[in-house]
Amino acid sequence: MPQDFGPPAPTLSLAEVEATARAAHAGQRDKAGRPYAEHLRAVAEGVRARGGDDEQIAAAWLHDAVEDDALTGRWLDEAPLSRRTKDIVLALTKRAGEPPEAYAARILATPGARLVKEADLAHNADPARLAVLDEATRTRLAEKYTRMRALLGQG
């Protein structure tokens, strides 16, 4: 006979996910010296504008948290989030020394992850955002983002 463990824990709301991501990345800056939370907000808004659902928007807020060591893998594993949200965050967590082809393949194999990565790339490659960087960094990043778009089939 199955055991009854009571109702499942409630899933974090989008507002709670946003607050968690902002707190986890507090003090972190992007390559241009801007607060990192601005990038997270832009990616979440980009996911929403592309028709993403709440699970994808939650993943957008958290997409760099484990990779940046802002939150631990254990936190993610234990967090009251859907399995799909966790899978998307893990798919977008680039591993040290991982070839771009393997990273892109994992994103493509994870339902919902490609849309989040598209929003991430769109914000990262924003000409206004890149314009404030030195030429060498701007060129390196533009090439990196172009290659990742190609690997994801975005032309």
Short synopsis of the structure:
The chain has 9 helices and no strands.
Structure overview:
- The chain is built from 9 helices and no strands.
- The chain is mostly helical.
- α2 packs antiparallel against α3, α2 packs across α7 and α3 (54-62) crosses α5.
- The protein starts with 13 loop residues before the first helix and ends with a helix.
Defining traits:
single chain, 155 residues, mainly alpha, globular, HD domain-containing protein
Helix fraction by DSSP (H/I, runs of at least 4): 55-70%
What is the tally of helical segments?
Answer: 9
Shape: globular
Beta fraction of the residues? under 5%
Unreliable sequence segments: 1-7
The averaged pLDDT comes out at 92
* Number of DSSP strand runs: 0
Largest sheet: none
String of helices and strands = HHHHHHHHH
The whole-angstrom Rg is 16 Å
- Class by SSE composition: mainly alpha
Q: How many angstroms does the end-to-end distance come to?
A: 54 Å
Organism: Streptomyces violaceorubidus
Protein name: HD domain-containing protein
